[in-house]
Amino acid sequence: MCFWNIGSPTPSYPCTLCIIKSILFPPKKKKPFPLLYLPFVALHSVIKMMDPHELVKLSMCSYRLELFLRCSKRKIEHLHIHLNKKFYHIELVNGNARFVTYFRNGEFEKPVITVKRMLQFCGSYESESDKRLTFTQLFPLSLCFDVSHLLLSLYSCPLIGWVFYMDQQDVETVRRYLDIILQGRCDKITFFRSEMSSEFLTELMDKIPLDKKLRIESNIPSDFRHPNALKFYVSQYKNGRWITLDDLKTIRNVLYVFLDSTIFNCHDINEFLHYWINCDEKMFGQMELQLDESVEIDEDVLKDGLITLRPEQQPDEFLSLYL
């Protein structure tokens, strides 16, 4: 408190004694917390309590911290890498929480030519809101693989997916990036928007290994056919009108099949169920078929020739088939 304002909780101006004191005894600057000097067990516990965005920001503080985080390998459930002509972002999924690290084109004094360390993005950090970490960074989309490798090195996850937005990327770019993706870590590939030609779809299904998960949220020509269409480990098609009953009967040893907007009716489903029951080989682990809204569900047709059980605790619309 200033000498001339004794008794006042808020001095109006500094007195001579306060100025002399500040010169002779300047306030000590707070030293940064020596995080790396903590014992390993304590430091590991601190890192485990951080969310993915905090780890990203921490990795940009110094190269030593980045190396330590690479060794720690924070576990997450899913990681999806979205490729778009206007932006590039990485979505981290851990339980019910989703964290997005978002890179968008913008004004930056020194465009990035090579990506080697997270420290390079420190100057382009823009904001964080609603679990979204935004960077204003100017770099060619081809460097997105280098950026993803840096972020992937911080985490350990069982599923890594790549997402293409077809309405904002030309086919040649998608072809080039797909070749690079298939050479590295890739568990699931998703295509959004726009209609895909039969030629490009044929090329995709010839190129993508059958042990991958394939999801196509784009329109598919009704006359398209391919022997591998339902042989991927997971197959998800928003437009399933091109899938026939014979295609369903070719399914073998897959985990999951999802077909939306199909052309099947109750007779087709009943025929397929009979084929499934009598098949000696394992066909699939789970299947979801969405019938057209114009199809009227007739339970008698669906259950014809099948032994069914309706649990008392379930609503009347619920139907279980025990094979």
From TrEMBL:
It comes from the Eukaryota. InterPro entries: F-box_dom, F-box_Sdz-33. It holds the Pfam family FBA_2. Residues 32-79 form the F-box domain. Transmembrane segments: none annotated. PANTHER family: F-BOX ASSOCIATED DOMAIN-CONTAINING PROTEIN-RELATED, F-BOX-CONTAINING HYPOTHETICAL PROTEIN C.ELEGANS. This is F-box domain-containing protein. It comes from Caenorhabditis remanei.
